[in-house]
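for the writeup, i need someone to sanity check this before i put it in the appendix. the sequnce is what the collaborator sent (i think, or maybe the updated version? ugh). structure was predicted straight from it, no edits. if anything looks off just tell me and ill rerun, i have time this weekend
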Amino acid sequence: MSPPAAAQVGALPAVFPAPVLLQLRGDPIALDKTVVLVTPADVAPETIALVREILTGAGVARITRRTSLPKRLDEPHILLGTTALPVVRAALARSGTTVDARPEGYTLISEHLGQGLVTLAGADADGIYHAVQTLRQLVRGGSIASVVVQDHPAMAIRGTIEGFYGAPWTMTDRLKHLDFLASVKANTMVYSPKDDPFARDHWRDPYPAARLADIGTLATRARQDHINFVYAISPGPTVCFSDPADQQTLERKFQALRSVGVHAFYVAFDDIEYKKWNCDRDQAAFGPSGAEAAGTAQAKLLNAVQAHLRAVDPKAPALIMVPTEYYDAKESPYKAALRKYLDPQIVVQWTGTDVVPPSISIGDARAAEKAFGRKTLLWDNFPVNDYATTKGRLLLAPYVRREAGLSGELAGILSNPMNQEVPSRVAVTGVAAFGWNDRDYDAARTWRYAARELAGGDDRTTQALLQFFDTQHLAPTFGSQPWQEQAPVLKAVLDRVRDALAAGDAAAREDALSALRIAADDFARAPDLIRAGVVDPGFVAQSRPWLDAMQLWGRALQLTAAGLEAANRQAPAATGDFAEAQALAAQAAALQTIKGATRFDGPIRIADGVLDRFIADAPGLLRTAAPAFKSGS
């Protein structure tokens, strides 16, 4: 079988997250209607199922199974297994490739042996699964790119924490998010919705059977997706640190969750009053309340819980905690107490140099390690939109301003996403890619990849999504200054128009106005392209008011462009076009967020400070060129 014409010439494929090593071996390998899977006993069923899904999607009609490689490859063969298996090691040796034995690492080789052999060799079961996620990206148009990939993650913990305030995700959201995390080679999801009463306000109460079963469903899906599902509890507002009954309540809670398949746990002490005891016996046990005493008390309780967890499940991951002082790396009595007393195996989370840091450097991480006495797990508050300055916004900018090399200074990285699960994937794709390979991370390419994944590979939908992302590029902080600017692509187009109109050159004005008209048409069409083209309907549902507002602003921009062209010709139609544009802009600015979807409801913001300002300024941009529109005309 010959490969499709478009695949005749080998080209280095794009793989995300960026692999440690990716080399082209030759032209693509054609997939016949029949492909043979060679799957020894140590390959998980979900991994085999994912390979079958990939091949079926590529047009393979018949997939057969073997447990060993034949001497003659008269059909394309795909071999999966760990590097401990002789058949896998022999295949790697025949290709002259070394083994990547790091945790979660894998080696993938696709080569022209007979009708084609693709070897996916994992250091462990997770590594095989990650190799299949790479295979998914290598299969295009009925062929597989001929490459060598050697790969492993830079950070041991990579993923998300559902840790925002406001409406929690639905079960559907969480299940889809687990599948998404698997697709970007993340390995951790922390369940910590602030509005789950059984995890915070009523943490002592057992879960109702149905709620507990739901969490068990998430744990099962997480195992299938090779994701470590972590349950977080927040007892801080009411816990009595020295009371054995509260410690036993925590242990019982975790045992109930263990019964439905959860094996990783987390205790959060964020956003609490820690300089006042919740019970008199803590005063007797730890002395007067205060920051240092709080650190000592928290460490004592966590150490006891960690010891219990290890006693009942020696293979369980280390307990994770988020401290009350999670938002900086400054030395303090509280941090000193944690550093002194907290079991060194317990993982400490930290949000950077602020609650929403504009940047994170290697030096920042080293300061945090010194303050807490261990490498910290970064809780990155991006793209979460549950604080006041995010009102009316989706946060869809690329993941930037985190320094390459942080993998050497952190225990891992978790993103705190938005209340809107599917739109959150834009930024989380970047977080996962950075956590996998921070030294080769390319923010712009990864941002475009996230758009292509949402678009199912369709070019027009991808471009429409990137236009939409640009309108939501602003990344706020808790202060007045954002750490990413709003709508940089659109602003460049509009600034060019302003400059051309100000320069007074007729040809330059006409060129700029023609480009504006085209850009306005693309902008106005983008929402319909997105609604029709994105592969997950959740994106459209969760972004609905922003898409509606973008369409109105697009029509306003079209009318503004028409008004400027008319003004450039000194035609009277300009006045009506500008007036109608202003009316549409006012209508767009009045659209509201979905009530209750986020912590703060409010008016939708679309390229604010850029698009609205241009439309408002437009009638005055050509006053000199068109005397008919001077004041008092």
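The chain has three domains: 5-151, 157-453, 488-629. The mean pLDDT is 94.
thx in advance!!
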